[in-house]
Automatic annotation (TrEMBL):
Pfam family of the protein (one): GGDEF
GO molecular function, one term: catalytic activity
Organism for this UniProt entry: Pacificibacter maritimus
SUPFAM superfamilies in the cross-refs: Nucleotide cyclase
InterPro entries: DGC-Regulatory_Protein (IPR052163), GGDEF_dom (IPR000160), HNOB_dom_associated_sf (IPR042463), Nucleotide_cyclase (IPR029787), Rev_trsase/Diguanyl_cyclase (IPR043128)
Designated name of the protein: Diguanylate cyclase (GGDEF)-like protein
Length: 340
């Protein structure tokens, strides 16, 4: 190896941190600090250049040495991460040694990630530093944009959920029910539609106030959720009117058992301050099996008709819709208050 003063060695390390020096036999006699960081001194120092690197063969090597010229060299490591490198070779003055200065080129971003490089691993004048700053700035912007999109998506989901939710009870609302019914009908999914109307709810509001009525409605919501399955839809569609859509359940016996459980739970007094609120529930049921052509509005109307029949029978009971069943206008109810 040609004599290199301490100043020359430190200058090479500072100005060309990815350099290496080869002797006349192609043995690596010196390596820059950044290049050393990529593989370690013991993996390169004292080894033949061609045992460490794969050089793209374009005729610029003779035996174990590289023939220097003005063209760039392209190479990769033989082992480990095959980081693409490019460089240029030049003979050293007054010596048979050869100096190679290497760089990452466009692979610098991957190299920084693979080897955990920092700005201190590059020459101060290396444009890679500016490129890394740009990449870092771009990454920061992309991350901020990603977080903003996540927040916007979360806000959108929350807004959509709010639009489909009854704020007092936490149940789905009429809009959500219409959306689900339309989707199930288009998909040909069988279901039952259960219309529930509270009995004597107006009495609670009139005697104990709307605060008591709100407590009752919240309790009704809990009963309906507890007595149905996760795949069923429970919606509040009016002041004291509720719809339960029973997913893939059309068996009359099963549906009647569900309705009876709901009615029994609704009759349990609801505590409010130092008194209790007493209500019951009337139920009307219809299923998709009763129709050749499924129409949500028709099913709602028919479930409502069956509900009127339950009111007519004295409340706190359930009825299935039957073709020809009299509507409210046909039924002998004392007055409109019979539906309360």
């Amino acid at each position: 190896m040609a004599l290199v003063t301490q100043l020359e060695a430190s200058a090479l390390d500072r100005l060309m941190p990815m350099h290496l020096i080869l002797d006349a036999q192609g043995i690596i006699t010196k390596i820059g600090p950044t290049l050393c960081k990529l593989r370690g001194e013991s993996a390169m120092l004292g080894h033949n250049f061609f045992d460490v690197f794969d050089l793209r063969d374009d005729g610029r090597k003779s035996a174990n040495t590289i023939i220097p010229d003005d063209k760039k060299l392209y190479m990769t490591f033989k082992s480990g991460v095959s980081t693409p490198l490019k460089g240029i070779a030049t003979p050293m003055a007054n010596s048979t040694d050869m100096l190679l200065n290497l760089s990452f080129g466009i692979s610098v971003v991957d190299a920084v990630h693979d080897y955990r490089l920092t700005a201190g691993d590059f020459a101060a004048t290396d444009l890679a530093i500016e490129m890394l700053y740009l990449v870092e700035a771009k990454s920061a912007v992309l991350e901020e944009t990603k977080q903003l999109n996540t927040r916007l998506q979360g806000a959108k989901v929350a807004a959509e959920e709010q639009a489909y939710t009854d704020t007092l009870t936490g149940l789905k609302n009429r809009r959500a029910m219409d959306h689900v019914l339309g989707r199930m009908i288009r998909a040909g999914v069988p279901f039952a539609l259960m219309h529930i109307d509270l009995d004597y709810f107006k009495d609670v509001n009139d005697t104990l106030g709307h605060a008591a009525g709100d407590v009752v409605l919240q309790n009704v919501a809990k009963v309906l959720v507890d007595e149905t399955r996760a795949e069923d839809l429970v919606a509040r569609v009016g002041g004291d009117e509720f719809i339960v859509v029973m997913h893939k359940m059309t068996d009359a016996d099963q549906l009647m058992k569900v309705a009876e459980r709901i009615i029994a739970q609704l009759e349990i007094p609801v505590p409010f301050n130092d008194t209790v609120c007493r209500i019951s529930g009337s139920v009307g049921i219809t299923t998709t099996e009763q129709y050749d052509q499924i129409d949500a509005e028709q099913m709602m109307h028919n479930a409502d008709t069956a509900l009127y029949a339950s009111k007519h029978q004295g409340r706190a009971c359930a009825n299935f819709y039957v073709a020809g069943m009299p509507t409210l206008a046909d039924q002998d109810l004392p007055n409109a208050a019979a539906r309360r």
